[in-house]
Amino acid sequence: MPVEKSLSFDITIYNSLDELKELDKSLMIQSIEARENAYAPYSKFNVGAAVYLENDEVVIGSNQENASYPSGLCAERVAVFQAGARFPGIKIKTIAITAASENYEVATPAAPCGNCRQAIFEYEFRQKEPIKLLLMGEVGQIVQCNSIADILPLGFSSTFLK
Ligand code: THU
To answer: Which of 74, 95, 120, 143 to mutate to test the pocket of ligand 1 (most atoms within 8 A of CB)?
Structure first.
């Protein structure tokens, strides 16, 4: 007999930056600042990411596009790959992500793309500790997820590669 199961996860919704804890607010502000350095002449969609590490370092990233579209990279991967390269073995605690468009006001919290979810999932799996996500548009509410695995259910990990 097939068994039906439902998966669920908790999020926290903040109405403004001021509702965030001091460290999280500062991280989101650094993500907004990082967004200013996005190179997105094609999509006009600017994304910033700020990664907070257990050694109190912050590593930032922004999306970097390319005339050959697939050669560009999302802000989240620019940031987490840089964190992995600069601080190997140091755990990621939180990633703040923010998005703004030159064409309209983004009022919906940034949604990391599937590739970025998979990339972040690798780090979470490796460190065996959840990575908190703080997602924001240009204005509006901020959504906190407590683990990348929550938004990548049934994720692919190295456990499959024996
Ligand atoms: N983008 C990100 O930087 N992060 C995401 O998770 C979604 C998309 C970028 C990639 C591209 O430069 C632009 O947004 C439009 O897709």
So the answer is: 74
- Count of domains for the chain: 1
Per-residue pLDDT of the chain in tens (162 residues, 90 and over written 9): 999 999 999 999 999 999 999 999 999 999 999 999 999 999 999 999 999 999 999 999 999 999 999 999 999 999 999 999 999 999 999 999 999 999 999 999 999 999 999 999 999 999 999 999 999 999 999 999 999 999 999 999 999 998
Ligand 1: does its nearest atom lie under 6 Å from the Cβ of 74?
yes
Residue 24 CB–ligand 1 contact under 6 Å: no
What gap in Å lies between CA 82 and CA 48, rounded to an integer?
14
Quote the pTM value: 0.97
Spacing, Cα 162 to ligand 1 middle (Å): 32
**Euclidean distance between CA atoms 47 and 35, whole angstroms:** 5
Residue 160 lies in a domain: no
Range of the domain at 69: 22-152
Choose which residue among 37, 45, 102 to substitute to test ligand 1 binding: the one with the highest number of ligand atoms within 8 A of its C-beta: 45
Asked whether 43 lines ligand 1 (CB < 6 A), one says yes
144 three-state secondary structure:
strand
How many angstroms separate the CA atoms of 147 and 133, rounded? 7
**Residue 135 included in any domain:** yes
What does the block give as tokens for 58?
């912050």
The CATH code of the domain that includes 51 is 3.40.140.10
